[in-house]
Amino acid sequence: MDETIESRTALLLGEDAIKTLKDKRVAVFGLGGVGGTAFEALVRTGVGHIHAIDRDVVSESNLNRQMLFTHDQVGAQKALCAFLRSKLIRDDVEVLPENYSVSIEALNERDYSNCDIMLDCVDDVKAKVALMKYSIEKNVPLLICLGMGNRIDPSKLKMVSLKKTEMDPLAKALRTAARKEGLPLEKFMCVISTEEPLVKLPKPASIMPVPSAAGLTMAAYAIKQMVNL
């Protein structure tokens, strides 16, 4: 029997899950080290409809850790590059590239209410709060990634509610901002690293292992939620 792109997925998840995933819709906000890996995992697994959202263009400094991009794409929109990458992998996944900065106003101009889950892979607190508000308003689950920079050990990742995050300045800032908005911290699951940062610099330092592992963790969580594992 000839193998297909679905063969190994079917062995793990079953044929029914493959059919289920083809009808699912995910929005990935941020396509860098974390979001880019999550995006590619969702594409390869066969999630039928994916919104790929990022405001940035590819820079050369992205290439050490962001798997979607190559040197010839420096200066190109990340969302468009994600779309092109998906078409190199499989043509039966609908990818909707969107180039904008996440904010309350921007989200209200768009409709993600039919998404099964949203993945927050952005690093801006205001944008994260906007996504949390949108998640509550539209009743769409949101999985949040917190600080992955300055670390090297992917085995130190874990998933907790926002209420129980630790050792992460970004998490602390997000909790404070979310409380001011009256958002329920316990409703939001987060991927965090418990590793002590190796360096503390004005600009986050990063290589591929930790951000990509966080992206894979987010993709796995989303897939399990969508097929009820």
Structural topology:
Layout (H helix, E strand, L loop, with lengths): L6 H7 L1 H8 L2 E5 L5 H11 L3 E5 L24 H12 L4 E5 L5 H5 L8 E4 L4 H14 L3 E4 L11 E5 L7 H12 L8 E5 L15 H19 L2
Parallel strand pairs: 1-2, 1-4, 2-3, 4-5, 5-7
Antiparallel strand pairs: 6-7
Describe it.
- By secondary structure, the chain is of the alpha/beta class.
- It is built from eight helices and seven strands.
- It is 38% helix and 14% strand.
- A seven-stranded mixed sheet has the order 3-2-1-4-5-7-6, sandwiched between helices.
- Helix 1 crosses helix 2 (15-22), helix 3 (35-45) packs parallel to helix 4 and helix 3 (35-45) crosses helix 8.
- The mean pLDDT is 96.
What form results from the Cα inertia axes? globular
Please give the count of helices.
Answer: 8
Strand content: 5-15%
The beta-strand count equals: 7
Characterize the main sheet: 7 strands, mixed
Low-confidence stretches: none
Could you report the average pLDDT, rounded to the nearest whole number? Answer: 96
- Give the CA-CA distance, first to last residue: 28 Å
Oligomer: single chain
Order of secondary-structure elements: HHEHEHEHEHEEHEH
Helix content: 25-40%
The value of Rg in angstroms is 17 Å
As laid out across the biggest beta sheet, the strand order is: 3-2-1-4-5-7-6
The structural class is alpha/beta
